[in-house]
């Protein structure tokens, strides 16, 4: 078996244009209410890394390593929920159609949030219509993203205002402007700072809750030679046939 840290990640998008997630304190409460270590251990059997609510993997040269890891903190979750003035239930629309183990992940989230006084009600929806009837439509659901080769690729598709796959319906003009600037910046130091600031905006304000990244895992015989793993996609970025051979 071949295994390296990957860029694919699991998300619980909160629609920022729907109540109660139009309030950032509710979003922060929900982020602090997730036990990420338990999620990684019990859903991925440890084959990954915990997420920090930003879609950039920790091995990436533009990764903002100085952004503190958001912990599981029921007291902080209670604080932000009280600040928001919201004490009702949270409906989580869920199905294993989102990703294998999604229902288990939702149940773990329900349990960890309960310790913060947050009542998550699980609405188990059909798997065969999940991506048509639940994703991009319900206030809170589950989702999964394969890795992207650049920061711009994931930010433009999922986080920019009005992007068709902006699953949290987040809209931040400062983010949009900075993203456009970073795309055309040729000075690497300036560009790195721009991507740092973009990650900080997502971390502080966005409706994406990113609980974990999964490792990229490939199975292979000891006779397979020349195989080079890629963190973005399995099977050497789907290009393994160009380099591998079988040792006789």
Quick recap:
This protein is of the alpha+beta class and 248 residues long. The protein is 35% helix and 15% strand.
Description:
The protein is α+β, with helices and mostly antiparallel strands. The chain has one domain: Roll (Dipeptide-binding Protein, domain 3), CATH 3.10.105. The chain has 9 helices and 10 strands. Helix 1 runs antiparallel to helix 3, helix 2 packs antiparallel against helix 4 and helix 7 packs antiparallel against helix 8. It is globular, with a radius of gyration of 19 Å.
Biggest sheet strand line-up:
3-7-2-6
Count all strands and give the number: 10
Structural category is alpha+beta
CATH topology descriptor? Dipeptide-binding Protein, domain 3
Backbone CA Rg: 19 Å
* Ends apart, CA distance between termini: 19 Å
The portion of residues assigned to helices is 25-40%
User: CATH superfamily assignment?
Assistant: Dipeptide-binding Protein, Domain 3
Q: How is the topology of this model organized?
A:
Blueprint: E1 2-4, E2 9-13, H1 24-32, H2 36-43, E3 48-50, H3 74-84, E4 90-94, H4 102-114, E5 120-124, H5 130-133, E6 143-145, H6 151-158, H7 173-184, H8 188-205, E7 208-214, E8 216-218, E9 224-225, H9 234-238, E10 245-246
Parallel strand pairs: 4-5
Antiparallel strand pairs: 1-8, 2-6, 2-7, 3-7, 9-10
């Amino acid at each position: 078996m071949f295994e390296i840290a990957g860029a694919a990640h699991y998300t619980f998008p909160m629609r920022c244009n729907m109540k109660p997630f139009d309030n950032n304190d509710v979003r922060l409460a929900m982020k602090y209410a997730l036990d990420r270590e338990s999620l990684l251990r019990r859903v991925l059997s440890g084959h990954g890394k915990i997420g920090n609510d930003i879609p950039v993997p920790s091995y990436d040269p533009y990764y903002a390593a100085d952004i503190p890891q958001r912990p599981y903190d029921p007291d902080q979750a209670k604080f932000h929920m009280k600040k928001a003035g919201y004490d009702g239930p949270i409906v989580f629309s869920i199905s294993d159609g989102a990703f294998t183990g999604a229902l288990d992940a939702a149940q773990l989230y329900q349990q960890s949030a309960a310790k913060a006084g947050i009542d998550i009600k699980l609405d188990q929806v059909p798997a065969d219509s999940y991506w048509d009837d639940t994703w991009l439509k319900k206030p809170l659901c589950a989702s999964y993203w394969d890795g992207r080769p650049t920061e711009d690729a994931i930010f433009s598709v999922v986080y920019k205002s009005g992007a068709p796959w902006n699953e949290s319906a987040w809209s931040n003009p400062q983010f949009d402007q900075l993203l456009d600037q970073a795309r055309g910046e040729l000075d690497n130091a300036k560009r790195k700072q721009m991507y740092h600031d973009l990650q900080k905006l997502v971390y502080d304000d966005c409706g994406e809750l990113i609980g974990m990244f999964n490792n990229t895992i490939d199975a292979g015989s000891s006779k397979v030679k020349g195989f080079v793993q890629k963190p973005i996609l399995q099977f050497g970025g789907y290009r393994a046939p160009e380099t591998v051979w079988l040792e006789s």
